[in-house]
Amino acid sequence: MKSLLQLDKVDAFYGAAHILHGLTLAVNEGESVALIGRNGVGKTTVVNTILGLASMRAGTVRIGGETLARPRTYMAAQRGVAVVPQGRCIVANLTVEENLQLGAAVGRKGPWSVPEIYKLFPILQERAHTPGTALSGGQQQMLAVGRALMANPSLILLDEPTEGLAPVIVDQLATIFNKVAAQGTALLLIEQNMSLVVRVAKRYCAMAKGSVVAEGRVENSRAGLHDLEAHVMV
Ligand SMILES: Nc1ncnc2c1ncn2[C@@H]1O[C@H](COP(=O)(O)OP(=O)(O)O)[C@@H](O)[C@H]1O
Ligand SMILES: [Mg+2]
Question: Residue 206 above 90 pLDDT?
Answer without folding.
Answer: yes
